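Changelog-adjacent note: as of this version, every example in the card shows the full chain rather than a window. The one below runs 110 residues end to end.
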Amino acid sequence: MQNDNAKKRIPWQIVLVIGVVLVAMVLGIGRLIAGDTGGGTADPLVQIEEPACTAAGGEWNSCGSPCRGTDSEFCIQVCVGQCMCESNEDCPFGYECSDKIDGKGICKKL
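Full-length structure tokens:
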């Protein structure tokens, strides 16, 4: 009878592996392993850091709208740091000046 119970048990290593896989899926690590970093599209919320903005000649706005440059009908009311520009030369490498309003745009990833 004891031998029958021993054969029906799942080894602890298999349980551990299944647990790790489930946790990884919940945390999104599976996307990273598959090579999906989410960087396929230009996201207006991808932030440029203030030193890179000012070094390129841009003007740092610590409380910009996260919906500027999007077609969204509704916008959350939070502040997002943005690099303001008048031309592409005011943006760090890899960014362009777009979505201009009254001559001021925001630097967006190319």
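Structural remarks: Residues 50-109 form one domain.
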